[in-house]
Amino acid sequence: MQTLQLTKDMNYNDLKVLEQYKDLRNIIIKNQKITVFDGLESQSQTLFHLWLDSCYFLKSFQSMSKFYFPHLETIRLDKCKNFSDLSGLQSIQLSIVNIIMDNTLISSLKPISSLHFVKLQEIQLYNCQLLKSLDGLESCKFSLKSLILNNCAIETLDVFSKSQFCLTDLRIIKSNLSSLDGVQHLFQLNILEIRESKICQLQQLQYMIHLKQLYLDQNLICCSDEFYYLQNLVTLKQLTLNRNPFYRDDQFYEKLISAVNERIEEISIDEQIDPKKLRKQRKFNHNFVRFSLLDKKKDVQKTQHDLISTLDYRLLRIESKHNKLLKTAKLVTKCVNIINTVAIKAHE
After folding, report:
1. Is the CB of residue 107 less than 8 Å from the CB of residue 85?
2. Do both 297 and 234 map to the same domain?
3. CATH number for the domain that contains residue 173
4. CB under 8 Å to 161, separation ≥6 — which residues?
5. Which domain of life is it from (predicted)?
6. What is the predicted pLDDT for the residue at 295?
7. Sheet of strand 98-102: strand arrangement
8. Staple 15 to which of 39, 126, 277, 297, CB 3.0 to 4.6 Å?
9. Which domain holds residue 341?
10. 66 and 90 housed in the same domain
């Protein structure tokens, strides 16, 4: 038996029930009243994946610290709404590869700051709305490749300026982030995605020479001069800056084209929103739809105008060619008449 699922009908307070099983590789625990991990040690030598779902009474990993799990690669917590402490992860610091948490009360990563994760490559945190800082993340700076933060209250990326990380993929969605300070130290970063935040400047990106994909939708970038900082990103292939309140002056597209040159394979910056309409978030969607419709109407009118102009031009060309053919025909007729006249006189 490799996979065991504990359902909500069992109502266990601990995991001693696992002692009757052997060689479990995957354990899924849903809707249980467990408060400690006592009993999990019986599977310590074979356990690879642990998934906890809706375990509302669980608050930390502290009870795991008494045992060693040499093969545990993935820990996933979903809807463990009272889970607030990362203490106790020292028992898996040499084996863990993925940590995924959704809807928890975690407010700090400092409990793991003294650890040394060797294989931890990916951290995904969703709906951790008390988490404002990434301090403590330096414990996995040598191994961490991917960091995903969705709907967390992150305010700063200063932790990246304190230690040299090996991150290649950083994605932050729905945050309180207002500055990219710190991200310039992620020299190996290939993918940077920061959506629905408060970013307004791109200066920190100018030396990220390995960046290939940049997604900055729904931020507060309003000045087209920020495109200047993209000129040095020679490896950049994809760029999206949709739904930013750009002020589109006469040089807007010229600045964009001069910044990205011909190396960009995919670029998306077509949504235009009036900055004054972004003051109230509740009106954002309405205004976006309104402006999108206006843009579409303008596009249709422009297309119609272009078609009419094209048809007029083609008609003029046809008329010109027709006139030339008439002139040529008259000239040929005149030449034929002259030849006939000369032939008649020569015959006489």
Report:
1. no
2. no
3. 3.80.10.10
4. 181, 182, 185
5. Eukaryota
6. 54
7. 3-6, 26-30, 49-53, 74-78, 98-102, 122-126, 146-150, 169-173, 191-195, 213-215, 238-240, 266-268
8. 39
9. 286-348
10. yes
